[in-house]
Amino acid sequence: MLQDFLARLAQEDAILVRVAASQGSVPRAAGAWMAVFAQGSCNTIGGGQLEHQAAAEARARLQGRAGEPILRYALGPALGQCCGGVLQLQFERVTAGDAQALLARLAPQLQPLALFGGGHVGRALVQLLGSLPFAVSWVDSRDEIFPCSVPENVQCEHSEPVQGAVAGLAAGSRVLIMSFSHAEDLDVVAACLQRQRERADLPYVGLIGSKTKWASFRKRLLERGFEERELAHVTCPIGVPGIAGKAPEVIAVAVAAQLLQGS
Asked: Which of 13, 32, 121, 125 is the most exposed place for a label (fewest CB within 10 A)?
């Protein structure tokens, strides 16, 4: 969305509308933005009458009307929105010359995430994560497994052995393990637990599979010298509970939801 905005900004001016502050129940928090052009807009500050009125105000300013840089909007009966909160919206005219500064100001803060495995579920997850605030390292021991095109926030990495990539993960990475091989899965889990023992900087380690699979892995990891308290750091099965579907896309939604719960 940001790249679409900047590409269009190269051709015409816009009004950048940002949530400068908020109080109470509101649709979007401070920092949310939309860019309003003479025709159309990019991104959203929450929709509804709030966004409709803000867009109208922005277009009037594009046509030359002056106004205070920040306006207050109460989300009550006057707007036909019953949220009850208050937003302060900042209106700022931007041009092509502002592109680099806007890129720095508006780029989302991405959380590091490592995805081990390029199978069907891995592919479905990558497509979904492409629209979420994660910087994804997608790792597999099979170099040919990666598609020709991936989302902008995804980097593909061939690693042989696959667990060798664990040492180089960014601090704070969430880790998802779903390779084509249970043996590879076990080695990656062990590498994550070893790193967690030494650095304690992997907040989430998730392993795809059943309770039966985890029981087998648990036994083998204990034999490798890990303790019960360390094994408790691994989530298996993964995904929010209550979603029974087994299609890759359904699993991907359940897993992404669980990741966002911990954001």
From this structure: 13
Encode burial over 179-208: b for 16+ CB neighbours within 10 A, e otherwise: bbeeebbbbbbbbbbbbbeeeeebebbbbb
**What is the structure's pLDDT at 80?**
62
Summarised one tens digit per residue, pLDDT across range 158-198 is 999 999 999 999 999 999 999 999 999 999 999 999 999 99
What are 78-114's pLDDT values in tens digits?
A: 666 666 688 899 999 999 999 999 998 998 889 999 9
Domain containing residue 185: CATH number: 3.40.50.720
Task: Return d(Cα 70, Cα 20) in angstroms, integer.
Answer: 8
Domain boundary among 76, 106, 136: 106
**Are residues 83 and 191 part of one domain?**
no
Burial class (CB in 10 A: 0-12, 13-18, 19+), 99: middle
* SS3 of residue 140 by DSSP: strand
Residue 79 CA to residue 60 CA, distance in Å, equals: 19
* 145 and 242 fall within a common domain: yes
